[in-house]
Design goal:
By secondary structure, this protein is mainly α. The chain contains 7 helices and no strands.
Length: 173
């Protein structure tokens, strides 16, 4: 995805550039799936996690835990939307919710020490105000004017990797 974002950001966004980027991305995934045993194993593991979550309502897997933590974060956010629960109180809020929730299948999430998503973590700790400030900082970084193409590629690559990675883990930790 970073390849697509950087290509679109550096070159004038046209249909041709968009389709070339998508083609490159698809080719990359096909090659990785066919020539990387580790990549193929991770895809199979993800499929297995999703099937277990759908059939058994089991959140004790990599993908299941992330989805379950989204559910927990939603409930914490609804109770503290503006300012959040604070930096030191996010784990306490998670564990308190899990202790009192009627959804017993979510209780396996008690041993996680963060939400596996930077945006959720910031939203819970600092509320909508903190998330807005954080997103504004990312926006300001994206608006920094650079003339040299190497630095533009670096800027967009880092932003893209940071933002995409933040959805799956705590990159900003």
């Amino acid at each position: 995805l970073t390849i697509v974002f950087v290509t679109i950001a550096i070159y004038k966004p046209t249909i041709k550039i968009f389709f070339i980027s998508i083609f490159m991305l698809a080719t990359f995934f096909v090659l990785m799936y066919n020539f990387s045993p580790n990549f193929k194993t991770r895809i199979a593991s993800g499929e297995h996690d999703i099937k277990i979550l759908q059939t058994n309502n089991d959140y004790y897997s990599s993908i299941g835990a992330r989805i379950g933590l989204w559910i927990v974060a939603e409930n914490i956010f609804i109770q503290n939307p503006i300012l959040g629960v604070g930096v030191a109180n996010n784990l306490h809020a998670k564990n308190t919710f899990l202790k009192h929730t009627p959804r017993k299948e979510l209780k396996v999430l008690a041993h996680y020490i963060h939400f596996h998503n930077s945006f959720l973590e910031i939203l819970i700790q600092y509320g909508i105000i903190g998330l807005t400030i954080f997103l504004y900082i990312l926006y300001l970084i994206s608006k920094v004017k650079l003339r040299d193409i190497k630095y533009k590629v670096l800027k967009y690559s880092l932003l893209s990797i940071f933002i995409l990675g933040s959805f799956a883990d705590i990159v900003f930790f």
